[in-house]
Amino acid sequence: QVQLQESGPGLVKPSQTLSLTCTVSGGSISSGDYHWNWIRQHPGKGLEWIGYIYYSGSTYYNPSLKSRITISVDTSKNQFSLKLSSVTAADTAVYYCARDQGYGLGWFDPWGQGTLVTVSS
Amino acid sequence: EIVMTQSPATLSVSPGERATLSCRASQSVRSNLAWYQQKPGQAPRLLIYGASSRATDIPARFSGSGSGTEFTLTISSLQSEDFAVYYCQQYNNWRTFGQGTKVEIK
Questions:
Q1: Is the Cβ pair A108, B89 closer than 8 Å?
Q2: pLDDT in tens, A25-64
Q3: Do B97 and A49 touch (CB under 8 A)?
Q4: Which residues are within 8 A (CB) of B82 and not within 5 positions of it... i.e. 6 or more apart?
Q5: β-strands B101-105, B10-13 pairing
Q6: Longest dimension (CA), chain B
Q7: Number of C-beta neighbours around residue A38 at 10 A
């Protein structure tokens, strides 16, 4: 079955850009009508959807984060990536990648295990 | 943005008892609602989608109901492994989550 795995630096300095990659295994990122999502969870808090990308490169972002987000896809590596610019301590969170089922079917399954990113100097 | 409000924030239940969790949307999301279970240190796990359809391998003691703005997740007889935090999520208009309900042992 499809599995997702996040990777990237666990520590980012304020004002810098957070960069994470999600590697998809057990299936092709280019197959089906799936959307590939980033979701974050602040420590001890709830979940916040960041945005998603379709394998063609079409993206949709959370309006509250849109000015700082870039999500991209590399189909040759079966990966998609997140860049979040101008980070502050408020961006400290566990970042998850997850697949949703495509248009109109926006539940998340499966999820990656998550990676903690701390913003600190 | 559609705001999802879950209640109660914490639910204290004895093993074997029934648990009823609520989720309210600030505007109609039709049946475009999912429920997740999250245990400490783990990613959320999909339980329910389409408001009432159980995901693969989810036990029958989990059931979802509702449409529009009012939704319910029911766990018919709590098992030890069910004590966790539960989130609802709408996907009718972008995606937003509720703040979670923690189900704890009474």
A1: yes
A2: 999 999 878 999 999 999 989 999 999 999 999 999 999 9
A3: yes
A4: B19, B37, B61, B75, B103
A5: parallel
A6: 38
A7: 27
